[in-house]
Amino acid sequence: MKTLATVLAACLLAAAALAADKEPVNAGPYVPSPSSVVADMLTLAEVGPKDFVIDLGSGDGRIVLTAAKVFGARGFGVDINEKLVKEANEAAKVQGIADRAKFTIQDLFKTDIRQATVLTMYLLPNTVNMLKDKLLSELNPGTRILSHDYPLSGWIPEQYRQFDLEDKIAITGVTTTLIYLYVVPAKAGGAWSAKLPPNLSREPVRMNLKQQITRVSGSARVGGREVLLEEARLRGERFSFKLALGGKTYDFTGSIKGGAIEGTVEGGGAKAAAWSAAVAK
After folding, report:
1. Diameter of the chain by CA atoms?
2. Which of 16, 47, 105, 185 could form a disulfide with 42 if both were Cys (CB 3.0 to 4.6 A apart)?
3. Other Cβ atoms closer than 10 A to 99
């Protein structure tokens, strides 16, 4: 039989656990990106007026503020430091861009990031990699991710830049600054039933694709034999590969949207022709 003391203790523990769950996760100390590299980061991602930029761990807001004022984008930043968030919102008002740049006190792990076309972060390496699953599951294919100094483990960057900046010494003790640009991939892994031009196959072709985040490999069963996909590449929704058929090499390109691929194939001296695929049932 439980005593009153036992019950009270259990209630207190449950309340403490609930309170802890509601507390924002501290992703590390505030370390700002040098002002001299912010514009370079946004230029690398080709940020423009049609973009919505989200900065996780936004600090004084310099990245979103620059994206809005210089590049014409919209967006918001989140941070758990109330003072910095207040400063960032005040700066947006002073600069006349409060309608396009907003900042909130929020746990970056619980932030809704689905609206982003560009996501930026300057976080500790373990925090960056704790976010990997969230980025992959919530961001739309084609979204650009900018990570300052620390890479996303298992992801292949689209571009990589290294700068030597004197003002970085005050932040990290060294001049080296690294910028990684990633593009969120579409879901390509699994079995697909493809329809190729008649000169390549009159029967449906089964493609089996293996995907490890941005890496794709696989094969296609054409005319009763397995043919490996060569130079397979996935960038956002854009998927390309080569197939060697009948002594000739064909270049396939396509766009993956949901459970379908639509594209064209060229090679073998023939004109470009349409091909398509759907998730195999």
Report:
1. 86
2. 47
3. 10
Domains and CATH numbers, the chain: 35-183 (3.40.50.150), 190-279 (2.40.128.20)
The amino acid at 137:
S
Spatial distance between the Cα atoms of 32 and 172, rounded to a whole number of angstroms: 10
Residue 89 CB partners (closer than 8 Å, separation 6+):
61, 98, 102, 103
Q: Give tens-digit pLDDT for 221-261.
A: 998 899 999 999 999 999 999 999 989 999 999 999 989 99
pLDDT, one tens digit per residue, over 144-165 is: 999 999 999 999 999 999 887 6
Nearest to 74 by CA among 107, 100, 110, 42: 100
Q: What is the DSSP letter of 249?
A: E
CA angle 77, 83, 85 (to 5 degrees): 15
Q: What does the buried/exposed string (b/e) look like for 205-235 if buried means 16 or more CB atoms within 10 Å of the residue's CB?
A: bbbbbebebbebebbbbbeeeeeebeebebb
What does the block give as tokens for 240? 């390309």
Residue recorded with tokens 């060229």: 266
Q: What global pTM score does this model have?
A: 0.83
Buried b (16+ CB within 10 A) or exposed e, 7-45: eeeeeeeeeeeeeeeeeeeebeeeebbbeebbeebbebb
What number of other Cβ atoms are within 10 A of residue 74's Cβ? 19
Tell which residue, 138, 154, 137, 135, has the closest CA to residue 146: 135
* H or E element, residue 6: helix 4-22
- Residue 101 near residue 87, CB atoms below 8 Å: no
Partner residues linked to 277 by β-bridges: 194, 261
Report the SS3 class of residue 36.
Answer: helix
